[in-house]
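#random but structural
TW: two for the price of one
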Amino acid sequence: MSSTLIGDGYRFSEEIMRQEDEVGTTMAQAKDDDRALAILTRRASGLLAHDEALAEMADADCTVAIAAAIAERVRLRADLVQRALDAESDEPISVMCRAAGFTMNSYSALLRMRRRANRGAESAPAHALTFFSALSRTSAERQLPRLAVDLGRREGRAR
């Protein structure tokens, strides 16, 4: 499986950006992949900043591409980031986004995406935004190792 570098650190394997016959990728997923590829191509061409690319991918519900982009920035496995995106709590993905250096604008778009998927619905968006804005990048980077272990443990319990 080969990897493609698309602009400043966005590394996506062919597995993420193509249909997989054995999995039976739906038309909706293929459409999402096309949207993500178009956004990332504009990012690679210098037409979008990192934050703008994340916000556009969130608005297009491109969760697989978002997980890969955040994972690349924070040097975690994409499946751990995906687990944070799917978590009921906003805290894990808030920490990852802050550690990745994303701004309130892109995080807000990601939060809207999570709410559309009924994730994090137990807390008010204002609470998540306040937590994110109060969190420094340095503090978020320090929390990443513990967060990765916690998310990894959840994988073990799910099996």
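TW: number two ↓
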Amino acid sequence: MMSVRLPGWFSIVKKNLCHRTGIEALKKIFDTGAIMPNGGAFPDTYPQSKGSFARIHNLVSLFDFAKQTDDECLKQIHNWYRFFFDHKPVTIVILLDRKLLDAGIITNEKAVQITNGSFDPIFIPNVEAFYPHPVPCTAFTGYLIICGVYEKIYEYIPTRGAFAEIFEKVDDFVKKHQEIYLDPLNKLEKELAK
């Protein structure tokens, strides 16, 4: 039986409220000064997006692992893990200051109550939370750049607010890890052989 371990970046995500996005969407976030709720104005990222709890209630979708143990997170890994490396070439995780948002956060438990436990409209059990207003860039406490080809490769940038240099950091990240982008299976085989 293969044992599953959480990647190194998870210890950073676990301590923070966060939102994940792609490069183009991050540019729009910086342009508007906030992560905006998606009531249908943005394109669907996934087939289930149109009928999601966040979309129907015009909320910002967030991840909040703070109340879950690592074991509980592992039990639900099939529901949330892929969202952290599904953008190409990278997924950007925006870490958020919980104290600035706490009063307005709709917790997973509250979403379960709202749906009477039906999870309809759809949301990720235990780890997805929501915010009913734009999340200002002033609430950003850092960023993770996670490789979209091999999710164990990441870079943590502990910078507050909108950080325009992140796009240069992404370019540097992709150049640094160019080998994996060119031949991900070969790189993965080398990693597994260690």
